[in-house]
Design goal:
The complex is a heterodimer of chains A (303) and B (287). Chain A is mainly alpha-helical. In chain A, 73% of the residues lie in helices and 0% in strands. A two-stranded antiparallel sheet of chain B has the order 1-2. The interface between A and B is large, with 41 and 47 residues.
Chain lengths: 303, 287
């Protein structure tokens, strides 16, 4: 039971990382990213391959994951800079699907739909499963804390103010002399790097990845987390991630109580619940549980 | 063996079928100004409604196609009314996100009812025709004919009927259309009904050649979006033209790429068009 709780908490941490990454891209800078699952996959595969195929340490894998995801994020946003949001939605969704397609078909690299097994975890060989889960949980939660602090500093800095400005009105931001293009590419790359970090954490914790894990459904989970928690609010992103995990795991306990339900139907009901909740939250409380509170402008020193 | 003519024929057939859901998607965009990702689930719903009419009720393909149109259109209007219309004032992107959530809900309702198994339509098995070394199935020809008939009906409606003209007016300038006494909410509902109906019919047309499962619609989402974007998002003739480009492009890609990457052609087409001609081949004018 402790082991299960620790694993659940670890997954909640991974979702929190995803939600924090999305919050930089969508919450702060207002760029839509429906290809989140693709960046998550990039991170997971980069880290898995660095550690299994190249045999490098996990830290190198995590660095590679963040670098690759950030690079692809920057390139994708550079390519789509002049597009309106609705086009960006389509392009990013397509990007996510493309990554999954590559993961499923470039068998020489990714082992195709069989996936990559045996991805090393930190000290997995020396620890009992319970201890391993405890260590993973601690590591992932530390990562969440670090990303949170960085994202929060970012939000309160002049940099974060520029991002909000271009989210709300990029023409005005440009008129104010801000380089809209540079900020957009940087914010997308930064957020994508965090998504890549989450992918690496997932790969090393579960030790197995396959293309099917990176379905667009994951994107909906994270949008639900961020929307429910409060778009633009880092605490909201973490809270929302915990909430999504609570819904997902909680429904596992409710499922056996419904008679005449087979496994596939149970999974279908769970997905209906997630999708329905997202629509409901957007309808009833679009600002989320914790609404965004832009930091107070610093008062000028009294003369 | 000469592969090219065969691929071209396949591409033209596929492009014509793809045009139907692409027109539905782009029409909804033209009038309501948001990319409605719920097309994935509605294509699936249409495919399964057609399956139910065809296999359970024993109807031939053409009337089953009408069932696919009606069921997908009806569910389209109802779900839009409940889930998406109240969110539209919050902006196109919020609505787009909600439409993905909606597509996941509806796709899983289909899964709940029909399960995950692959299902095939009950169609007479006939020998392919051969003509100058090109093979084409009579069913393919029938599908092509049905798709062309649907397209003719769409263009005639847009051109000659009051509703069609009102739709074009709203797409062109919603404020001006409202000033002239056209109710945008009613036009929105009619557009969603017809658009999702077309998507449903398209889902069935695309599914007729293979087998269907709850992910059928999702598999076609990239080519459908690609067709709409390539032709010019919101342009109905553009969607038909874009579908042809994507359909033929997918088939020709088989000359150089493995079939697994066929659906990547759509993505590449989107990126290329957006990089060089952001408003698509025909621009964004609805008609």
């Amino acid at each position: 039971m402790e082991s299960y709780l620790l694993a659940t908490l670890t997954f909640a941490g991974i979702y929190a990382l995803l939600a924090l990454g999305l919050n930089v891209i969508w919450g702060m800078a207002g760029m839509i990213n429906l290809g989140m699952a693709g960046f998550f996959a990039l991170g997971a595969y980069a880290s898995a391959l660095t550690t299994t195929a190249l045999g490098l340490p996990i830290a190198a894998g995590v660095a590679a994951a963040m670098a690759l995801a950030a690079l692809c994020g920057g390139a994708l946003s550079r390519l789509t800079l002049n597009l309106r949001g609705d086009y960006l939605a389509i392009v990013t969704l397509g990007f996510g699907e493309l990554i999954r397609l590559i993961a499923a078909n470039e068998i020489w690299l990714t082992n195709g739909s069989d996936g990559i097994p045996g991805i090393p975890g930190p000290m997995r060989a020396d620890l009992t499963p319970l201890q391993f889960n405890a260590l993973s949980c601690a590591l992932v939660l530390t990562a969440v804390a670090v990303v949170w602090v960085v994202a929060e500093r970012l939000r309160r800095s002049p940099y974060g103010r520029v991002l909000r400005a271009l989210r709300d009105d990029d023409v005005a931001a440009a008129v104010a002399g801000k380089s809209v293009r540079r900020f957009k590419v940087q914010a997308f790359a930064l957020g994508a790097g965090v998504l890549g970090l989450a992918g690496a954490a997932y790969a090393h914790f579960t030790s197995y990845i396959a293309p099917d894990i990176f379905r667009p459904l994951l994107t909906i989970y994270i949008f639900l987390a961020l929307t429910a928690g409060g778009t633009g609010n880092n605490a909201g992103a973490v809270l929302g991630a915990a909430l999504v995990i609570a819904i997902l795991e909680g429904s596992r306990f409710v499922e056996p109580m419904i008679p005449h339900l087979n496994g596939a139907q149970g999974a279908a009901l769970r997905e209906i619940l997630i999708g329905g909740t997202l629509i409901l939250v957007m309808r009833l409380r679009p600002q989320g549980i914790l609404a965004e509170r832009p930091p107070e402008p610093e008062r000028a020193a009294q003369p | 063996m000469d592969l090219l003519p065969q691929l071209l024929v396949n591409g033209i057939v596929q492009g014509t079928l793809l045009a139907i859901p692409a027109i539905g998607f782009t029409a909804i965009f033209a009038v309501l100004r948001f990319p409605n990702f719920a097309v994935a689930s509605h294509a699936t719903i249409g495919a399964f409604a057609g399956y139910a009419a065809n296999v359970w009720l024993g109807l031939p393909a053409a009337p089953a196609l009408v069932a696919a149109f009606l069921v997908a259109g009806l569910i389209g209007v109802l779900s839009d009314e409940v889930a998406l219309r109240p969110l539209r004032p919050h902006g196109a992107l919020t609505t787009a996100i909600a439409s993905i959530a909606l597509t996941i809900v509806l796709e899983n309702v289909v899964r709940l009812i029909f399960g995950n198994d692959l299902r095939g339509y009950d169609l007479p098995i006939v020998r392919d025709w051969r003509w100058l070394g090109v093979r084409i199935g009579p069913q393919q020809v029938q599908n092509l004919a049905m798709a062309l008939a649907i397209m003719a009906a769409v263009f005639a409606t847009l051109r000659y009927t009051r509703i069609g003209k009102a739709m074009r007016a709203v797409a062109d300038n919603p404020a001006l259309a409202e000033l002239k006494g056209i109710d945008p909410v009613t036009i929105g509902r009619i557009t969603v009904f017809a658009g999702m109906g077309l998507v449903g019919a398209g889902g069935m047309l695309l599914g007729l050649g293979t087998s269907i499962d709850p992910l059928t619609g999702f598999r076609f989402i990239l080519p459908i979006f690609a067709a709409a974007v390539v032709g010019g998002l919101g342009s109905i003739p553009g969607a038909a033209l874009g579908a042809m480009v994507v359909g033929i492009g997918e088939e020709l890609s088989l000359l150089v790429l493995s079939p697994a990457y066929k659906s990547a052609v759509g993505f590449v087409a989107i990126v290329l068009v957006l990089a060089f001609r952001p408003r698509g081949i025909l621009g964004e004018r609805a008609y």
